[in-house]
Amino acid sequence: MALDNKSEFKYIGTRPNRPDGLDKVTGRARYGADAYAPGMLHGAVLRSPHAHAKILNIDASKALAMEGVKAIVTRNDFAKGLEGDDWDLLENTIAGEKTLYDGHAVAGIAATSVLVAKDALKLIEVEYEVIPHVTDVDAAMADGAPVIREGAADHSVPEGLHPNVVRYTEFGRGDLDAGFAAADMVVDRSFKTEAVHQGYIEPHACLADLGADGRGELWCCTQGHWFVRRMCSALLGLETTQLRVTASEIGGGFGGKTTVFIDPIALALSRKAGKPVKLVMSRSEVLKASGPTASASMDVKMGMTKDGKLTAATASFRMQGGAFPGAPMDMTTMLAFSCYALDNVHHEGFDVMTNRPKQAAYRAPGAPMGAFAVESVMDELCEGLGLDPIETRLKNAVKEGTKSAFGPRYKAIGLIETLEAARDHPHYSAPLAENTGRGVASGYWMNWGGETSVSLAIGEDGAVQVGVGTPDIGGSRASMALMAAEAIGIPYENVRVNVLDTAALGTNEPSHGSRATYASGLATIEAAREAIGKLCQRAADKWGIDAEAVEWKDGAAYPSGPNAGDFEPLSIADIAGEMGSTGGPITGHHDASPTGFGGSFGTHIVDVHVDPDTGRSTVKRYTVIQDAGKAIHPSYVEGQFQGGAAQGIGWALNEEYVYGEDGRLQNDVFLDYRIPVASDLPMIDTVIVEVPNPGHPYGVRGVGETGITPPLPAVANAISHATGHRMTRLPMSPPRVLRAIQGKGIS
Amino acid sequence: MVAVNLWSGLRRFTGGAEVVEVEAATVAEVLKALVEAHPGLDPVIKAGVSVAVDGEIVQRALNHPIQPDSEVFLLQQFRGG
Fold first, then answer.
1. Which A-chain residues 344-373 have CB contacts (< 8 A) with chain B?
2. Contact criterion met (CB < 8 Å) for A171 and B9
3. Do the Cβ atoms of A411 and B56 come within 8 Å?
4. Which residues on B lie below 8 Å from A411 (Cβ)?
5. SS3 label, residue A236
6. How far apart are the first and last CA of chain B?
7. Which among A546, A480, A544, A554 is positioned nearest to A511, based on CA atoms?
8. Is CATH 3.20.20.370 the classification given to domain A21-29+450-592?
9. A250-282 pLDDT, tens digit each
10. DSSP letters along A47-78, please?
11. HSE toward the beta carbon, residue A551, CA cutoff 13 A
């Protein structure tokens, strides 16, 4: 779909109140754990205390005999004969022959109360044979490392690699030797990042009601209920349309709620008990057994001339995504050098299995790690050659028509505009206090379209309801309402947007890939235009003229010119009030898999103070500059910018999965897993750049994910400048920074 | 004929070729023709790929049209968060 030639907007770009605001501040909003059903049972999950163990026997007889226990499920209660991704999903949902990580589900219980269910868990006797484990990505690739699963490697893996390497990629172009020979300076560095969790505040929760006839209902907290339906149906052997899934309000997801963990267990328990079953994860379960992102070990080499032109670049990314294939090394490799025009470039990626939970998507999956390594090397080159980091990035920046490092040429993009805005921002030239460094970094996320279905209906009073299938995870109901209001020409307040269940629309991909405002928005506009066509036809019928002679503007039908006739305009309320007697309901609908999503570039500036005595880093000032294409609701866009920066700062400074020698997670509560809170951060300044995306009627680009990509290197560059030591390992916690300051290395 | 650019790691399935020319008018036809020309690519494509057509990245819209002069890249499957 092409960009409208529309420069003036009435509703787009305004900042109305969010439609879910009152519900959320008064406690009226219903989240995953707020679902109840008559006679429902409560579930609990028994989890492995071992990082890697064979399950020799499970004896649940004592638990089953306990008063109040109504059902127990193990792997035997799920579908047989699954393959590929479905088998991986089932194996992660509930262990089969082996437990693969600390916290891996082994059995589920449904009982009359949560307390009874948790007490009964202690009566399930599991006989384990503990076997060697490995949790570090480099160790898992080394000779002699314990094998997680023989034969898991796919066609892409060359011979000779360890069986834990399950996918491999390699691509590039040009003459690397000549490129590096042309450089005046070459930097070759190794980097390491730790696994971090998405950190959504709402734990996974669901209420399942599945009958013996295979018909069921599921209410759950998810970013994509059609995905949940497909996954649960596969794992339970159901027909997809017999399972109706309703998405609750969602307290954060960031990619981590695009898959299932407990929903299939709740459904299996419900089927066995013959009653609804509610299942809610604890925070410890969320951290141990829902997917964090991958950790990475990386080598990046880049060459640059003394006037700041990049001549060649190579990167190797080794990423572990837990005990299953799927670490996002493909996105890391494709996007690592996405900001720069390079004739000589090469990428290599390894997907490695370890005894950790199955990784899940996390905001721009894979991109932040690559950006950390590449933008750190870029900074070191600028520092070494005495060049300004923004001017140097401008000299190498990609623009429309540039061949990307991963192949295709870019369409209209806004990297240069974000860099120019950063260069001209007062933050960039502000003086720095003692022991404070300034870091700059850019980043990119490609965004996504995906399967989308939207319905729109006109009410009898001329108000409009829009039904979408993308859960509102970042303000999309407000954005859809603004786009519908703009398209139809009625006030924002006259549009209500509802997130419908899986029985009410065709398939919708989740709210992932920064796609909701782009794809559901595009479908909303098209559905509105279809309804406008019908409204015009009703007016034409009333006036006795052709529909082509009717013009729609500002929420009313007008004769399109003097030749069309002299008629009083008919408002949407006029037409809707009579629709029952003029042909019936007036609706619009649009289905699509749009491909015109436009990627979004961002550039961040950060000032970090480092205490030389303790190594503690404090973010003093932070500015996010990002291309939104067209900001539908600027406050929500700014919120996405700030949220991405906050999560990236946490990843850079404090967050990490800490495993003990026994392979067990050591920090499975928020007191020990340290995400930044409001008091840790300054107010994050934002600048919205608008380079319209030609693939959306109003120019929208997704904005949700790019914001987490630059913070890792921006903060690292700032700390490196503050301390005089190049930081190559995350998190840059006080002990690690202090060791660097004291010259004890960055281990 | 449409020239399809593959990623380097696939060269071992195509006898060393990194660009494969096929007769195709849609993304679906590109994928089918690639497998016909180089059966070793079958598991790669079955595992999931994206196709960039003149800068637009297509994964599910297999009916997406392709012109003879289109710039086409086979890419690894997109995964979003």
1. 361-366
2. yes
3. yes
4. 55-56
5. helix
6. 36
7. A480
8. no
9. 999 999 999 999 999 999 999 999 999 999 999
10. E-SSSSEEEEEEE-HHHHHSTTEEEEE-GGGS
11. 13
Residue A558 is encoded by which pair of tokens? 């007008």
Amino acid at A219: W
Helix (H, G, I), strand (E, B) or coil at A378: helix
Judging contacts by C-beta atoms under 8 Å, the chain B residues touching residue A648 are none
First to last CA, chain A: 50
Question: Nearest residue of A to residue B70 by CA position?
Answer: A408
Amino acid A24 reads K
Cβ(A322)–Cβ(A240) below 8 Å = no
What is the domain count for chain B?
1
| C-alpha torsion A109→A111→A115→A121, nearest 10 | -30
- Domain regions of chain A by residue span: 21-29+450-592, 38-355, 379-447+598-741
Beta bridge partners, A133, equal: none
Task: Report chain B residues whose CB lies below 8 A from the CB of A513.
Answer: 78, 80-81
Q: What is the mean pLDDT of residues A55-78?
A: 98
Residue B53 lies in domain = 2-76
Q: CA of A407 to nearest chain B CA: how many angstroms apart?
A: 7
| Cis peptide preceding A731, ω within 30 of 0 | yes
Examine residue B81 and state whether it is found in any structural domain, yes or no: no
State the architecture of A379-447+598-741 in CATH terms: 2-Layer Sandwich (3.30)
For the segment A363-392, what is each residue's pLDDT rounded down to a tens digit?
999 999 999 999 999 999 999 999 999 999
Read off the pLDDT of residues A476-486 as tens digits, 9 standing for 90 and up: 999 999 999 99
Please enumerate in sequence order all residues whose Cβ is within 8 A of that of B16, keeping only pairs 6 or more positions apart, or say none: none
For residue A583, which amino acid is it? G
SS (H, E, C) chain B: CEEEECCHHHHHHCCCCCEEEECCCEHHHHHHHHHHHCHHHHHHHHHCEEEEECCEEECCCCCCECCCCCCEEEEECCCCC
* Residues sharing a CB contact under 8 Å with residue A515, sequence separation 6 or more, in sequence order: A447, A448, A449, A450, A452, A470, A509, A597, A702, B80
| Amino acid in position A351 | D
Contact B71 A409 (CB under 8 A): yes
Q: Decide if domain A38-355 falls under CATH 3.90.1170.50.
A: yes
